[in-house]
Input
Amino acid sequence: MKVRKAVILAAGMGTRMLPASKVISKEMLPVVDTPAIQVVVEEAVASGIEEVIIVTSPGKTLVLDQFEKAMELEHHLEARGKGDILSMLRKSNHPVKITPAEQAEPLGLGHAVLQSRAAVGAEPFAVMLPDDIFDCPRACLRQLLDAAESNDAPVVALLKVARSEISKYGIVDAKAAGERLFELRGMVEKPAPEKAPSDFAIMGRYVLTPEIFDLLAQGKPGAGGEIQLTDALMALAQRRRIFGYEFEGIRYDLGDRVGFISAQVGFGLKRPELAERLRAYLRSVICS
Output
């Protein structure tokens, strides 16, 4: 299984991060000084992806504009000898082939994936949710791709979550199949902790096969008229083996206020020019 394309779902309303996301889409909110959408695209590039399909809602163009050249700004920086800032800016200029797709109505995660069908074609592909940002020794998506290629099967990212968090996620029923690898036997969307089949939650990285599109197209809308990706994954699991991979690294939920702040701290501490001052500030807050 060779995966060349990744689909990033950026059509959501961003209601969890209002009022910050009222005008600026949540995918453009920064992780330190880099928009979340760019962090996710950079992960795709680091994983060997050749084309990124970005699914947006009508009129939501900022996430696509992020990867266009800003010639006037570049000329301004060049004229003032700000080469370091210019180099950083140019990193966002088409780091990979970017293909737009549109979700005309907010009809669920599965429906958003379905809108990428024409761009993906009949080949395996990755799905990336920009709410989930990862700090891993090896790109999170690359870890999943290696597992998918080794087993010639779809793979989803798994994270063990606290019992109090179980009802927020899709939880899997799984059996061990190797180091960090689990074969999925079922999935339950946001179960009560006492009814959860495990404490493994699906995170926002998936490697899927194109047959998922037919299952999404045939899927019946659930609550709120939405087509859920989890339902299609459960149907796919009836046809072939699906695996979960417990990725190595840290995940930040940018759709959660504490997760968003934690990402700023975590990624800020990785920046040599920021780390010392940030540590000093954190010590002063903790000790005060």
